Amino acid sequence: MTMGRIIFYKDKNFQGPSYETSQDCPDMSSYLSRCNSCRVESGCFMVYERPNFMGHQMLVRRGEYPDNQRLMGMSQNDCIRSSRMIPMHRGSYRMKIYEKENFGGQNVELMDDCDSIHDRYRMSDCQSAQVMDGHWLMFEQPHFRGRMMYMRPGEYRSFRDMGMGVKDMRFMSMRRITDIMGKIVFFEDKNFQGRSYECSSDCPDLHSFFSRCNSIRVESGCWVLYERPNYAGYQYILTPGEYPDHQQWMGFNDSIRSCRSIKNVYGNSYKIRCYDRPDFAGHMAEWSEDCPSVHEAFKFREFHSAVVTDGAWAFYELPNYRGRQYFLERKEYHSFTDWGATSPVVGSFRRITEF
Q1: For site-directed labelling of 51, which of 98, 290, 317, 321 has its Cα 20 to 30 A away?
Q2: CATH topology classification for 94-176
């Protein structure tokens, strides 16, 4: 088992008295009167809003978190009161989820990430679970968004008893916690100079870590970067490598305000269906390889809807993978606006792989 190490600080920006631990901490007040920033030196932790691993919770991997309010997405100060170390699991992953409490209703067994229980299994809800192998994150919304909850091996008869502070908590997507994780380093200046920030997880708002971004080093994993906070604005898809200036990732400016780690890039299966009318109508083309020219392959230039059934994909505004980029994960896109575009024109598209 890989040990982790996390340091909590009394004040923001890693100031004031600190407390370092490699174990679970059920009550931070035993060591610090308040906690407003933290640094993860190694490993993976869940941090909690209240003592005894209760309340709102957030996964933190190796990196710096200078403001816990921003990390937790909360308005009050001192919003971390307990933490739990997550051991890295290297074996199989297995979990059974149930539609109703006490293991009732429809059930399905998972051994891999599930981005939407409704889309994949036609389950309308998930109210109890049994974790047999591995460590998992449960998400309130599809596609690994919204509030999350950490689940280690055991039985969970009712999520209402999990101390989340939400009366009718429900979960719609699940992800394994693995040591296959990405790492990306942002630099304020060109050629990897100036202030830098290292990131290993999704971040909806990066502006507190750097004011501009002119070079990037992707050490592992695949990432989609966004011009604006909360995954909005221009999108840029990066695979491992060095990008010494923002033109190298076809950036329109030096603004990077949010980022997401791209999952589903480690398998061998890729499949996408594209339609020339909204809501999956009109001509359909199914594809499993890169396509440098949509017009030459399909004789039309517009995609009004799409369904990604396997893998992760990138659409490009122009042929030969140029122009504005759009990230598509495994889901249904009823309109081109669903993948963030303002026009249905697609010049090329390709699979997103780490290699």
Answers
A1: 98
A2: Gamma-B Crystallin; domain 1 (2.60.20)
